């Protein structure tokens, strides 16, 4: 049935996009949120502020010095519910068979290095091959597409089907934004972060234009 409001804006959903490496290659794994979280928490803190100076002169020099952009963390809770898919079993056979296992596995794999495997070494030893974690982008509208590193993952499975497959769950995610200091210079993630930072600077200038006149007359100079 067509919408009664054809000019209404398109409703965007948040997502996590996972690339196997830091560079463009195979098609990424796109995890679209079934429901957008009701709230999102962000924290910014100085990156390793300089140690306390030994004298007042050094304090004047160092008070505004930092080692780079702030450390930004993001936390949110994702709700998952298989009720809609179970109501249409012909369209969603995997959900009928496995419940929310595929969706939860896709989220969990963001914490696993792609292709991790154990290789037999000499004699009875086992050599573990180490890989980089996938590059993960957090997508929250056009103004916030940013590379992140998952720091915490907590899932609460709240309901199950007859086969004990989870059919309702919530996942609490903690993420740290990766900046140009942590990413390779030629990587996709670094380019994404620089675009994110540029957009933030543009938005800050828009606020400056709209609010400067309100306070400039109050300044004592």
Write up this protein.
The chain has 221 residues and is of the alpha+beta class. It has one domain (15-44, 67-113, 129-207). The chain has five helices and nine strands, in the order βββαβαααβββββα. The strands form two sheets. Strands 2-1-7-8-9-4-3 form a seven-stranded antiparallel sheet. A two-stranded antiparallel ribbon has the order 5-6. Strand 7 and strand 8 (145-160) form a beta hairpin. The mean pLDDT is 83.
List keywords for this structure.
elongated; two-stranded antiparallel ribbon; 7-stranded antiparallel β-sheet; alpha+beta; 221 residues; 9 strands; 5 helices
Sketch the major β-sheet: 7 strands, antiparallel
The backbone outline, from C-alpha atoms, is elongated
Q: Give helix % range.
A: 10-25%
Average pLDDT rating: 83
- H/E order of the elements? EEEHEHHHEEEEEH
Q: Specify the number of helices.
A: 5
Are there runs of 5+ residues with pLDDT below 50, and where?
Answer: none
Beta percentage is 25-35%
Taking Cα atoms only, what radius of gyration do you get, to the nearest Å?
23 Å
Count of separate structural domains: 1
Strand order of the largest sheet: 2-1-7-8-9-4-3
SS class: alpha+beta
The number of E-state strands comes to 9
Distance between the termini: 62 Å
Q: TL;DR?
A:
The chain has helices spanning 56-62, 83-86, 93-98, 101-108, 188-216; strands at 15-19, 29-32, 40-45, 71-81, 117-120, 126-129, 135-139, 145-160, 166-177.
Write the topology of this structure.
Layout: E1 15-19, E2 29-32, E3 40-45, H1 56-62, E4 71-81, H2 83-86, H3 93-98, H4 101-108, E5 117-120, E6 126-129, E7 135-139, E8 145-160, E9 166-177, H5 188-216
Antiparallel strand pairs: 1-2, 1-7, 3-4, 4-9, 5-6, 7-8, 8-9
């Amino acid at each position: 049935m067509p919408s009664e409001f054809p000019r209404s804006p398109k409703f965007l959903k948040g997502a996590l996009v996972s690339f196997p490496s830091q560079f463009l290659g195979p098609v990424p794994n796109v995890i679209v949120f079934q429901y957008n979280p009701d709230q999102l928490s962000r924290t910014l803190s100085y990156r390793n502020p300089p140690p306390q100076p030994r004298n007042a002169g050094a304090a004047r020099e160092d008070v505004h010095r930092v080692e780079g952009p702030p450390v930004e963390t993001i936390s949110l809770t994702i709700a998952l519910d298989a009720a809609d898919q179970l109501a249409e079993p012909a369209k969603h056979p995997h959900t009928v068979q496995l419940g929310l296992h595929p969706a939860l596995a896709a989220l969990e794999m963001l914490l696993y290095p792609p292709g991790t495997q154990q290789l037999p070494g000499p004699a009875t030893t086992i050599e573990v091959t180490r890989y980089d974690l996938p590059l993960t982008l957090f997508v929250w509208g056009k103004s916030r597409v940013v590379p992140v590193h998952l720091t915490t993952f907590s899932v609460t499975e709240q309901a199950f089907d007859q086969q004990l497959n989870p059919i309702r769950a919530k996942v609490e995610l903690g993420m740290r934004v990766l900046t140009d200091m942590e990413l390779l210079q030629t990587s996709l993630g670094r380019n994404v972060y620089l675009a994110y930072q540029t957009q933030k600077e543009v938005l800050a200038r828009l606020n400056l234009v709209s609010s400067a006149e309100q306070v400039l007359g109050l300044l004592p100079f």
